[in-house]
User: What shape does this take?
Amino acid sequence: MPSSKGYAAQNAESPLAPHAFSRRDHGPTELTIDILFCGVCHSDLHMTRNEWGNASYPMVPGHEIVGRVSAVGSAITKFKLGDIAAVGVIVDSCRHCAPCRRGEEHFCAEGATLTYAAKDRVDGSTTMGGYASNYVVDERFAHRVPANLDLAAVAPLLCAGITTYSPLRHWNVGPGKKVGIVGLGGLGHMALKFAHSFGAHAVQFTTNPRKREDAMKLGADEVVVSTDPTQMKPHERSFDFILDAVSAPHKLDDYLPLLKQDSTLTLVGLPPEPPSFAPFNLIRGRVSIAGSMIGGMPETQAMLDYCGEHNIVSEVEVIPIQKINEAYTRMLKQDVKYRFVIDMSTLA
Ligand code: NAP
Ligand code: ZN
Ligand code: ZN
Assistant: This one.
């Protein structure tokens, strides 16, 4: 069994600290990846602190994984030793239900297996995530990485990237569409890059006026400070689509009146407290609130290939693993530009 080193939370209050464990041996269609970089998603913070109520400990978080293939099973077709491979938020599913057959493994009828803090379908153990030296995964749930992209900056594509790419594609964001992105964080900045790249008129909403210049550089056509009603008012009934990537409670009622008739606000952010909104803001304009979760394996590969073709990566601040607790504190202060990524060589 491959031994692994990582950083784990031992309970909802403990800081992350070194933790040794072992991975199961890889099966014939599985590979072992020696992890080079792992992104730090706000979900890691929600999960380690049990903000969604589904934690199990010890918990090694991390689901934005890029690394080098160090062992392959006998039936592997997609990778060979030494290749770069990437893993995102899910690592297994039933593989036979209708969503799995469609390549929408994240909507698996029997429940997809999360990269960490979930029950492993093979041996019943608890999955341990990517703040670690290695990962063992079936090749169906591992992705090829375009050779032209910086590997540290690729890592966040595996969650922040696909979570924003998928709904922007699903709701047909493109030329002639006015799109709002709420929250300029890890997910938000990727949404902004994709919306701009798809040719839409992209409007970034932020609570922080100091992010205006960055947002413009990242592709915003307009930046709106959402706490200023005089900036919000002129946008009433003008949006074809709004993607909300905020991690904390906030008022959807500020955004629903900005949608055109029959348009949609899609939530990807997952604040622990359920959002509230006035039904009057839905009936006026017959607008919808929807949600979206990561993406299936074929779409994740398509997103990575698109990023390779268009030179799109995340804006990252690379940190040593020893700074992970400080990174969580800074994330809560909205002090990150725009994704922390752990350099796993610092684990040694
Ligand atoms: P993040 O980097 O911390 O960004 C969150 C952003 O939300 C901040 O940059 C900030 O933007 C805004 N914000 C924070 N506190 C706020 C407040 N009190 N009021 C208004 N705005 C506030 O987080 P992330 O990694 O992008 O993740 C965002 C959310 O998506 C998390 O809840 C995460 O769990 C969830 N998520 C969902 C999926 C999915 O499949 N649906 C996948 C990954 C993550 P401004 O400073 O610009 O206002
Ligand atoms: Zn994530
Ligand atoms: Zn399934």
Remarks:
- The pocket of zinc ion (ligand 3) is lined by residues 93-94, 97, 99-100, 108-110 (CB under 6 Å).
- Residues 116 and 127 are 4 Å apart (CA to CA).
- The longest helix spans residues 297-310.
- The first strand starts at residue 3 and ends at 8.
